[in-house]
Amino acid sequence: MSKLTDVPKRILIGRALRSDKLGETLLSKRIALPVFASDPLSSVAYAPGEVLLVLSVAGLSAYHFSPWIALAVVVLMFTVVASYRQNVHAYPSGGGDYEVANTNLGPKAGLTVASALLVDYVLTVAVSISSGIENLGSAIPFVVEHKVACAVAVIVLLTLMNLRGVKESGTLFAIPTYVFVTGVFLMIAWGAYRGIVLGDTMKAPTADFEIKPEHQGLAGFALVFLLLRAFSSGCAALTGVEAISNGVPAFRKPKSKNAATTLALMGGLAVTMFCGIIFLAMATDVRMAEKPAQDLIRDGVPVGPDYVQDPVISQVAAAVFGDGTFLFVVLAAATALVLFLAANTAYNGFPLLGSILAQDRYLPRQLHTRGDRLAFSNGIVLLAGAAALLVWLYGADSTRLIQLYIVGVFVSFTLSQIGMVRHWNRHLKDEQDPAKRRHMIRSRAINAFGAFFTGLVLVVVLATKFTHGAWVALLGMVIFYGTMTAIRRHYDSVAAEIAAAEERPDEYVRPSRVRSIVLVSRLHKPTLRALAYAKLMHANELEALTVNVDPADTKALKEEWERRGINVPLKILDSPYREVTRPVIEYVKSLRRESPRDAVSVYIPEYVVGHWYEHLLHNQSALRLKGRLLFTPGVMVTSVPYQLRSSEAARKRARKRQEWNAPGAVRRGPVEKGHKEPAGRNTP
Amino acid sequence: MSKLTDVPKRILIGRALRSDKLGETLLSKRIALPVFASDPLSSVAYAPGEVLLVLSVAGLSAYHFSPWIALAVVVLMFTVVASYRQNVHAYPSGGGDYEVANTNLGPKAGLTVASALLVDYVLTVAVSISSGIENLGSAIPFVVEHKVACAVAVIVLLTLMNLRGVKESGTLFAIPTYVFVTGVFLMIAWGAYRGIVLGDTMKAPTADFEIKPEHQGLAGFALVFLLLRAFSSGCAALTGVEAISNGVPAFRKPKSKNAATTLALMGGLAVTMFCGIIFLAMATDVRMAEKPAQDLIRDGVPVGPDYVQDPVISQVAAAVFGDGTFLFVVLAAATALVLFLAANTAYNGFPLLGSILAQDRYLPRQLHTRGDRLAFSNGIVLLAGAAALLVWLYGADSTRLIQLYIVGVFVSFTLSQIGMVRHWNRHLKDEQDPAKRRHMIRSRAINAFGAFFTGLVLVVVLATKFTHGAWVALLGMVIFYGTMTAIRRHYDSVAAEIAAAEERPDEYVRPSRVRSIVLVSRLHKPTLRALAYAKLMHANELEALTVNVDPADTKALKEEWERRGINVPLKILDSPYREVTRPVIEYVKSLRRESPRDAVSVYIPEYVVGHWYEHLLHNQSALRLKGRLLFTPGVMVTSVPYQLRSSEAARKRARKRQEWNAPGAVRRGPVEKGHKEPAGRNTP
């Protein structure tokens, strides 16, 4: 079937995979790590900076607390990774936080987690792209001068890519992620070597600046509060850790074990990079301030509003590699790219979560169907629109956007871990094997500690960030929660309305006879086909119906009808105002009034055309009539299509559309084959 | 059926007319005059000014030519009115220029006229509203300071009114038109009385200005050309004369005679007002210039770009009644209102012409149906969009817009009159009665002179205005012509494709057997109804089909199927990627491959809901499946609707929509009852 025109495409993106084959592309750990970890790893590009930024409020002396805060983040990271390793083993189907909370804590907790995650996906896009732009800007000043426009352009680009359905490949993720990780480790190693072995003095571009503290000599409660706020900001490094727990089915076997190993690997890499950057920042005297324009002092004068505060990672790279060197530029580019990839993961995650929520009827049913392009498109456009709005409102300032972040993450961390504790409790009741019980008790202890710790962090984050912007995220969660509850309520009420009664199920809706009507406007092949099909159906009565819109046309039709000797009676309805719909509807209603127990079957000949503009030229009145007939009880409406030659074009488009791959397919893995029904079996 | 909530509406717009009654509201001459004449009469508000404006190019002395130009316009007006009186008698069905040209000169001439008229409708809106704003601005300066915004606002207002379907009433037209006509005549009479009897010196606000001629001492060919250009502009007074010839069926009997009388009345009124205003303008020394900012001199200095040149009618009114007096304001308001009404006539005429063109398959068929709200809406939005674009491009400057105008009018005048000559020639061949022959020869002479004169004017208009903007109008005509030709070609090719062969008409499309498939997702009332209806139809084979999207759901369905003992086999299709459409399509195709002579009938249970947001929650996959199935040959698709309680809301909306009245109904008159088929008759 391949044509010559397809050749360049084949060369570019490889042979088109048949969708049955998709299931066989499982991820090795080597590829799974970059696929899932671009989000958490990329956050080391901004999280260390945020810590210094908050500490600067109390002046330069407060920077000494940063190793302690880094330590707290490391401990938290280990806790979360350890906890999620339990999730991965307990829910190998890739349940994720929503399923864990839903199953163990009930639908309200589940819906809360889902709302939190949806908000978080939006923020992942906004924060990652803003931060990526800032990192790119440290190498290309133009970008940072047109921050909002560039950020929105990247959002638009990612959106178009995802709407078109880019074929995801592990390699696409692997290269920039590994370049980034290697770059950061190289930087840490080279920095350590220069500092410790060579004894060089490395100076960040801002090393000679002074910081004017917002609050001089902070102490006691205020200092603790500030430290907690710095810690909250550092927790941005933990976002995205839960992604692996959604993606277990995408791993090669043994799935759970491989996923757990990847999780541990990712945690290890993230904390090492996080700590390394913090320590290099201390060693090279990076200076960052929350309000750089007024609080950063160069030669005794504030730097003013034109000063652009580069991210900590690029300042460190400038100190270690030298500003503008090859390695500096490569690292800046890789950082930006990994951050954009992290944003892309949200483009995958958002519709995937939507599909799970649709299954539970919290979102429109059609989102459930995987690979349903239309459904994905709506989700993607919604995500992109919300993220672009935030980027625009917050001027693509990652520091201000991060204030909104993390709330959602820790809501879902906490509820998921509480759910896991319940999970183990339930299983412990039935389990007798002492070895397994021991194992479960150990898991429960880990999850309980995780729940306690992440819950504590959630309280800290809410307390320290609520007025700084976390309320916006909470508002977003409330909106999602409300909408999804309303949708579920609608589905439930419809389900109750249409539920079939138990006894004598189909008796009371069964009409006794059926009367068929074929709508005729002119005598051509589509009409003749509709007549032929209607005759096949052996209705109790059959007649053709035409509306007298134009007397001359009607007369000609009647004459041809007789001349051809068509053995179906032709009924002519009057329409003094050249309407089609109303006379037909009224005629059908009158038939129903005459014999209420008869069903009426209306056959409508339809042209099938290939181009949107042809739709404007055909079928409009048939479509409107069909729409109105559906409101008339006791009527069924049959379209008898007649495929015009041009419909071939549409058929080809549809075939092409089938080859489209939904974004996120690689991360999600194939559908479980385990509990599948044998295909094509008849049940008597 | 009337409800309490309807009471205020009833009081406001009167009892809702049943549409059968609409036919009985025929127009008396007293009402017909304002209904049809607001367009031509309103043009006296700007046409005299345009004449002076063009003459000013040669300096103040050229103003002395204005009576001669007025005379030429009067002669032309009498010619055109006399010619159209022949049309009205020859085509009492309200053919209009399109029908006359189409019937007598062939489809290409007809289509040219139609394109010209369509462009003219757009320009009527643009010119009338711009001029209306300028007249209003002479009383309310704010309006003229925000000319474009106000003009677009009026367009939007008219569009919304026409989209909602305002009930047209003769009175709505009559009051402002008669106030305007009375006001102008009062002004002429009072001006004559003051000037001749009292001997007052009346001075227009611009009387003391001097005019700097663009071309000093123009003579010979250049002067003739300028005079012809002034005449062309004056011809704007003739636009809209043809409207009555479209609207003959709306008149009371004797239709043709009444229409001809109204036409004469209108012509008389228009020329009297036109000449009266020109003479008053001369008497009160009105000064107008094409480029007022530089060419109008006040106290030796150009007035500059801030100067607003008021329309001639308001300058004359200021001189006769006094600036800002009650009568001055009333006349300004009535002038603006009549101009807006003139624009409104285009809102009626555009879709009406569209409906006639649709009948001849130059435009989408559905435009043909009268009172089809959707079709009207498209036409109205297209008209309004084009007019708003022109208003915006030309800064709502009526003088610049008038350069585009008139070309279309005279194209249709000329072709229509040539067509009439052919019409009489054809009838003269068969006519023997000498009295009738004499009458016909007289009519032919009038039409021939009309054709010659309007053709001459067309050449003059084209020659003098082409570079001034007439090329834009011609471009518009070419675009309309091209589009309509393409549409017609498409319809013709489809008609050829689907034309039924003469011998053994329905044999070759007739399948031998039919196989019915009921799509099932869950077992609820809609599914049971679809099953019951499908059973009624006695297909050769019947089976239920479900797609295994979720194994648990499928298992539950199968169990319930067996428990209820439904005696239809249930086939389960596998769908590893949770698609619904593809497996069904492929299954249907496989059935067709197995037995190509069988037809497949697919029953789809559908929910009928009442609100747009509910559509988002239901039926999406069914709709898409239906769309795809129609592309598969040999398949018919039956929707078995299940009306949810909420569908009642939609039914109510539909009922309300039926009461909508298409704009233009009053002008068009009822559909001819003459050649109507008796209702509800069966042809064996």
In words, what does this structure look like?
The structure is a homodimer of 684-residue chains. Chain A is α/β, with parallel strands linked by helices and 684 residues long. Chain A has 2 domains: 24-492, Up-down Bundle (Amino acid/polyamine transporter I), CATH 1.20.1740; 513-668, Rossmann fold (3-Layer(aba) Sandwich), CATH 3.40.50. In chain A, 64% of the residues lie in helices and 7% in strands. Chain A is built from 27 helices and 9 strands. Chain A has helices spanning 7-13, 19-22, 29-42, 47-55, 66-90, 96-105, 107-139, 141-145, 147-164, 170-197, 220-234, 243-246, 255-283, 292-295, 312-321, 326-359, 373-393, 398-402, 407-430, 434-498, 525-536, 551-564, 581-594, 612-617, 620-629, 647-658, 665-668; strands at residues 210-211, 296-298, 301-302, 513-519, 541-548, 570-574, 598-608, 635-643, 681-683. A 5-stranded parallel β-sheet of chain A has the order 6-5-4-7-8, sandwiched between helices. A 3-stranded antiparallel β-sheet of chain A has the order 1-2-3. In chain A, α5 (66-90) packs across α11 (220-234), α5 (66-90) runs antiparallel to α13 and α7 crosses α9. The longest helix of chain A has 65 residues, at 434-498. Chain A is elongated and about 105 Å long. The two termini of chain A are 39 Å apart. Residues 1-24 and 671-684 of chain A have low confidence and may be disordered. Chains A and B meet through α2, α20, α21, α22 and β6 of A and α2, α20, α21, α22 and β6 of B. β8 of chain A pairs antiparallel with β8 of chain B, so a sheet runs across the interface. Chains A, B: This is APC family permease. Chains A, B: Keywords: Membrane, Transmembrane, Transmembrane helix. Chains A, B: It comes from Streptomyces bikiniensis. Chains A, B: Residues 647-684 are annotated as: Disordered. Chains A, B: It is found in: Membrane.
